[in-house]
Amino acid sequence: MSSEPNRADLGKDPSRVSGMFDQVAGAYDRTNDILSLGQDRLWRIAATRAIAPKRGERILDLAAGTGASSVSLARSGAEVVAADFSPGMIAEGVRRYGAESPGGGIPNLSFVEADATQLPFADAEFDVVTISFGLRNVNDPRRALAEMLRVTKPGGRLLISEFSHPRSRAFAGLYRFYNDRVLPVVARFVSSNAEAYDYLNESIRDWPDQRTLAAWIGEAGWTDVAHRDLSFGIVALHRAVKPAT
């Protein structure tokens, strides 16, 4: 792995984005906790509650990173596949939660390296597919939404947790000030690759609003599309269902 900082751009070349996440894997969760002022924990709880995982369900957690969101789902007894296209993230997840990890790991949690636009799974394999803060890093998000539909069982569910756009102009201005002026300074102290967070900031700014993403989900073939805002619209939870027939 190169020691030079790997900074992706809005072209979102898969190899560059993957390499960037490889470099920040070790401290990724801690850095996110600091930069989000602890809000990432609340967003994870909200996503888990929205999914309402049940024992016996098979859940695909895409862009799972080191598996923090996957562990939350697996505690319900559901069989969870944590997938990410960054080998470094997957390795860190296996180190923390795999069979050789302290405590013996979590038996109903597995890790798979996977590209969201070309999922290595069979049709109709999962009861639930979820992706948290990863769809905007995919170079073809609409194709990824179609792939998620393909691997979901008829009647199965989709849950997307993603950064979005605050509706209040005043709060949006405050949020933009934090992202543009405060976050880069803090990232230089707490991250092993501060330039990666420059890209992540740009990707948030460039990402479409709630209604546009909802339209993409519907165009991919999902039904019952709905969303709700978290933290005044900094994040939105998007839900949908695969048609039963």
UniProtKB/TrEMBL annotation:
Task: Answer whether the UniProt record assigns the keyword 4Fe-4S to this protein.
Answer: no
* Gene Ontology biological process: methylation
Q: What does this protein do?
A: Methyltransferase required for the conversion of demethylmenaquinol (DMKH2) to menaquinol (MKH2).
User: Catalytic activity annotated for this protein?
Assistant: a 2-demethylmenaquinol + S-adenosyl-L-methionine = a menaquinol + S-adenosyl-L-homocysteine + H(+)
The region annotated as signal peptide is none
Similarity field? Belongs to the class I-like SAM-binding methyltransferase superfamily. MenG/UbiE family.
Q: Where are the transmembrane segments?
A: none
Note whether Cell inner membrane occurs among the keywords.
Answer: no
One example of the protein's molecular function in GO is: 2-methoxy-6-polyprenyl-1,4-benzoquinol methyltransferase activity
Keyword tags: Menaquinone biosynthesis, Methyltransferase, S-adenosyl-L-methionine, Transferase
This protein is called Demethylmenaquinone methyltransferase
Query: Could you read off the lineage of the organism from its UniProt record?
Result: Bacteria, Bacillati, Actinomycetota, Actinomycetes, Micrococcales
Sites binding S-adenosyl-L-methionine sit at: T66, D84, D115, A116, S132
The organism sits in which domain of life?
Bacteria
In short, the EC number is: 2.1.1.163
Pathway stated in the Swiss-Prot or TrEMBL entry: Quinol/quinone metabolism; menaquinone biosynthesis; menaquinol from 1,4-dihydroxy-2-naphthoate: step 2/2
Query: Record's NCBIfam families?
Result: MenG_MenH_UbiE, PRK00216.1-5
Give the organism the record lists: Microbacterium thalli
